[in-house]
Amino acid sequence: MAKKVPHRLYLTEDQMPKQWYNLRADMKEKPAPLLNPGTQKPLELEELYPIFCEELAKQELDNTTRYIDIPEEIQDFYKMYRPSPLIRAYNLEKALDTPAKIYYKFEGNNTSGSHKLNSAVAQAYYAKKQGLKGLTTETGAGQWGTALAEACSFYNLPLTVYMVKVSYEQKPFRKTVMETFDAKVIASPSNTTNVGRAILENNPNTGGSLGCAISEAVEKATTTEGYRYVLGSVLNQVVLHQSIIGLESKIAMEMLDEYPDIVIGCAGGGSNLGGLIAPFMQDRLTQKASPRIIAVEPASCPSLTRGKYAYDFCDTGRVTPLAKMYTLGCDFMPSANHAGGLRYHGMSPILSKLYHDGHMEATSVEQTKVFEAAVLFAKQETILPAPESAHAIRTAIDEAILCRETGEAKTILFGLTGTGYFDMTAYNSYLNNSMKDYIPSDEDLQKGFDRLPKVNA
Amino acid sequence: MAKKVPHRLYLTEDQMPKQWYNLRADMKEKPAPLLNPGTQKPLELEELYPIFCEELAKQELDNTTRYIDIPEEIQDFYKMYRPSPLIRAYNLEKALDTPAKIYYKFEGNNTSGSHKLNSAVAQAYYAKKQGLKGLTTETGAGQWGTALAEACSFYNLPLTVYMVKVSYEQKPFRKTVMETFDAKVIASPSNTTNVGRAILENNPNTGGSLGCAISEAVEKATTTEGYRYVLGSVLNQVVLHQSIIGLESKIAMEMLDEYPDIVIGCAGGGSNLGGLIAPFMQDRLTQKASPRIIAVEPASCPSLTRGKYAYDFCDTGRVTPLAKMYTLGCDFMPSANHAGGLRYHGMSPILSKLYHDGHMEATSVEQTKVFEAAVLFAKQETILPAPESAHAIRTAIDEAILCRETGEAKTILFGLTGTGYFDMTAYNSYLNNSMKDYIPSDEDLQKGFDRLPKVNA
């Protein structure tokens, strides 16, 4: 018999995790290593130092340390906006007339509007500790850029953000938020880098992509004295930092004598999904439990459900190391009418490996269905979700409806990664019925696959 | 010796207040009654029924019931987004190098982005319970309109919002948020009402004002079958509902063995200030304690600090009852370059009476100083504040700096009413140094005073 469940459960500061959990330590089959694109050999630690600060480079390659201490300074920063609440969606359950119990972990109650701050503060802290002069990064929907701007401002660390042009234009206010936190924001592709200039020459009207913005940020970091590059998703270090989401969720559920039958997260590069599922995936890998784990991605950018598991560049300009992951090809650009984030061509190598090995499921959803779920959720739960998060809501609702049909009282946990206050252009197009769905054709996708780098590994 | 203070303290559901506190019950001298503008006699309950739903009309006139039960349905709604955290501003204290202890009650973690939801849900609930067909209201910065849209959507109650035109134009996304929650949003003044048409005829280019939008909303409600009007500030019922802010704050501070020496709130119509200070003002009125209580208003709309304590209309169109309050005259319109909310010409009659009787202080601040405080706060505490809230931040910072100079370790509590995500146009003008201050001249104010209604009461 489960305990009386409050609408919102907050851990106390004492209950907050003091270590991150490194999922790789419990994977018998490790994710494939990053390769040097020139030699096609696994990257050595020292080869990462020109790109990442040293502590983060170590975390990136650490496949074995199960728990990593969260430095006290980062714990203190976390306490400014965490713990995030675990919320029981009583009203959504009622509206769906489902026997399912729906929980969500809400990461949107901070100014970045998302979970991104969890890794941003870690990355800014380690960079500052190493005495770096500044950081560069890219941002798509703007949540990562905002989060990193907040963290860098707190540590007095200069930051340059390459913002995907289509977002830069759709979301001028996001730019102002980052500028409030002293960040320099540049629309990408731009003429401030070689790779940006080359992309603009080929395609002057491009709306940009995360892959392209990454190329520019990496080039800028590696050509500026004392600068390093940081990334808000995909990387192993990011999945590590984001494990705080899942760890808090699990503690809270244990306090309620609950355990999820299904864990659902939206998936772009994998930062939220990897963090949310971490301790539940640990239970699967160590055979303590076997929750279903579902990644939800947009039908317009279906890397897990329709991509290839292959080595690819992490960026469009082909300047990064090669990562083995589910990918649509590093120059894949989702249709401009795709509204939410989750625009990345690839997927976290950790999640890609777990998916490849059958430890999780993946599904893709069309954006009008996503916004339908977003509006239903907003009205019932009073939180206006980010379009990204609404992918997970869509699938949670679909699973809860299935429960209504089968009569099963399953426990569903999903990640509500953020709020949609800066996505009102997209909401408006949904409300006006001008939003269109887009599913790339097999031929479109094949073009991307044909251009995958040849790797003999 | 105070207990160890966490960064954020959340009450549990069990600790949440189950009653609102009615400040009027402890006022020996009651606020002056509302007058019928025709007869100049105190309004009878029945005279309010065409405007407000019955339960709210009763609350409006109830000067004696000290505690009023919060209906369970409203408690359940509160649990979707409350309790709000009491936060210790450790990093702000450090940045200011002050011995003061700064606490703030953060009401911005819900989709309305402010404390407004606390009264919106109560008003929508009572209206639904009475079987009304719909509601009308006005909104300035947009927080109240958003809050009420959320609440009405939850209870399936149609809503028409008259939105001050200057905000409507500056904040198109606010409109979309309200529309997401099914509200009909109309820029005010509009040609949908007689009063709107009259105002437009006199001043076709007006940016509107809260007072004018109120006139339109009242006219619409009283001329539409089964509709009533609701208001997000000024009214006694609103101050009652908002007492949840202060009640939660006081419980949380008691858990920390703390008590504020100074309580600071921004003041537009008084909804947040009246709620935040309620139990602390009770302590003053009942001589249990004597915290300083400070209202902070914009220098461009200085009703407490430069207004007259007199009977006036609550709206520009002179259709509402007369309220005795500090007022700049019901046709006062703050300069268009004033960015934040707090644009109302009057002030809650309860707060006006308390101020008049010397139970609280008031100060006014210029908006560039307000945004300076907002940016400092955002960088230290990672929350981007609403411009309205930043008025309280400004004064809290000034008091903390005084403490640094005197060496006193005072305990300061202020209300952080909301977030500024929809105010980036104003932030942008501050960051670009294009923001100007505006202080009305004595002559300007005299014009408003000259047009005050003649009341013989």
Question: What does it look like?
Answer:
The structure is a homodimer of 457-residue chains. Chain A is an alpha/beta fold and 457 residues long. Chain A folds into two domains: 19-69 and 116-229, Rossmann fold (3-Layer(aba) Sandwich); 82-113 and 242-450, Rossmann fold. Helices cover 42% and strands 16% of the residues of chain A. Chain A has 18 helices and 15 strands. In chain A, the strands form four sheets. Chain A has a seven-stranded mixed beta sheet with strand order 1-4-5-15-10-11-14, sandwiched between helices. In chain A, helix 15 (367-381) packs across helix 16 (387-406). The relative contact order of chain A is 0.15. The model of chain A has no long low-confidence stretch (mean pLDDT 95). The interface between A and B is large, with 45 and 45 residues.
The structure class of chain A reads: alpha/beta
Oligomer: homodimer
**Class of the largest domain in chain A in CATH?**
Alpha Beta
Outline of chain A, from the CA principal axes? globular
CATH topology of the largest domain in chain A: Rossmann fold
Portion of residues in beta strands of chain A equals 15-25%
**So how many helices of chain A?**
18
CATH architecture of the largest domain in chain A: 3-Layer(aba) Sandwich
Radius of gyration of chain A: 20 Å
Strand count, sense and barrel status of the largest sheet of chain A are:
7 strands, mixed
